[in-house]
Structure formats: structure tokens, C-alpha cells
Amino acid sequence: MQSADGNNLSCTCYEPSGPVKAGVVIAPAMAVEQSFYAPFAKYLATQGYRVWTFDYYGIGQSKPSSMRTCDATISSWINVDYETVVKKASTDMNQLPIYIVGHSLGGLITPFLPSA
What we know:
By secondary structure, the protein is an alpha/beta fold. 28% of the residues lie in helices and 18% in strands. The protein is built from three helices and four strands, in the order ββαβαβα. A four-stranded mixed sheet has the order 1-3-2-4. The chain is globular. The relative contact order is 0.25.
């Protein structure tokens, strides 16, 4: 997925096998890769939720080829990365509700999302 500022953002969507109840965006803690949340995301999918996990720019699969060029800040993680995933989830879910599960930093910065 490409973020609003043009960076490559790694995002994984876990689909339920049956009807979708709602969407869930799992916002990671600082420096925690999305793979850490995969078991939880898979479990939620078995319960009927479409779930998105992602790596902030500069972390995990969202690292640029050279970290010397990485200009990520907490502000860009909120306004660009996290916001990009929430907007994608909102578009995909149409009228169904979306829930946010934030771990540490991911929970603390949720109220600062532009779409909040």
C-alpha cells in the first residue's frame, strides 16, 4: 500500500471466512512489527471481523532500502501512516463499523488521527 506521502507502507488484511461483522484496525506499539499481531488478527478473523495490521514507515516491512533516507516521525505515523490504513479500512467496510485496537503508542495516538 502506498501512503499519502508516497512511501511504501506494509499492510496486511485478514479476511473472515463468512459474513463480515465489522472491521478492526490494529495500531501497533512503537517499533513493534505487524507480525507480532498476526495471531490476534487471525483469531478476530475467525470471529467474523476483517482485520488490518500495518508497520509504521521505518519499521518492519515498511523500512526504506536505506534508513538514512527515513524521515519518519511520530507525527507522520499519525497523520500519514495510521490515517492511510484507517481510510482504507473505512472505504473497504462501506457502512459497517470499524474498531481500533491500539497497543501502547497505537492507542495513545488514536485521538490525534485527522479522521477521528
